[in-house]
Amino acid sequence: MKTQRTRKKSFNLSLASFRRNANGATRLAAFLVGLAFLGSPIVEATVEKGAKLQGSKLQDDTSLLRFTTHKAIKWSSADFDPSTYEHPTGNPTRLKFKAAGDYFISLTAPIVEGPNGNNGKRSQQEFVIAKNGTVLDVGAARSTYIRHDSGHGESSGHTAVLLRGISANDYIEIMTKRVH
Question: Residue 5 phi/psi, 5° resolution?
């Protein structure tokens, strides 16, 4: 285990990435996702060759999801193996790869409706992976439908995908937009 820390439950976007080594075995980081029983802390760990990023704002420092063009998630927290990844402070939306290989990407994106409940209109958010600025045709999360009625005001987007053929110095961003 590379690092370990204790923290309280959070509802930020989370991205996990793990590198596949040269012999073809994917190295997965331990994601200890648990339920908070009686206020107990959640223990999290990032292992060697792993990365975990969290953010609750977009590239323009907004957090409202009412736009129809893709905007990148701005990662405010990054825990990663510095021999494999880089999270440039000048580009806080990016996770840069230092080593070529295949990488497993997992995204969990919880969404909670805003104070006006989207004026009762149904909504759906899309999350996609962009490599070097180009949206990929794999790994889109579109399971975020919110009815905004009868207490249905939360949802989440999820994806898990193996990105093959990542080159050293490639970077990815998670982008989102309203689709309904």
Answer: -150, 160
Encode pLDDT of 29-68 as tens digits. 333 233 333 444 555 666 688 888 888 899 999 887 878 8
Query: Tokens 């930020």 identify what position?
Result: 12
Is the distance from CB of 60 to CB of 141 less than 8 angstroms?
no
Burial degree of 8 (CB within 10 A; 0-12, 13-18, 19+): exposed
Q: What CA–CA distances, in Å, run from 65 to 15, 37, 113, 127, 170?
A: 18, 31, 9, 11, 27
pTM of the entire structure?
0.73
φ, ψ of residue 4 in degrees (nearest 5): -150, 140
Q: Would you tell me how many other CB atoms lie within 10 Å of the CB of residue 64?
A: 8
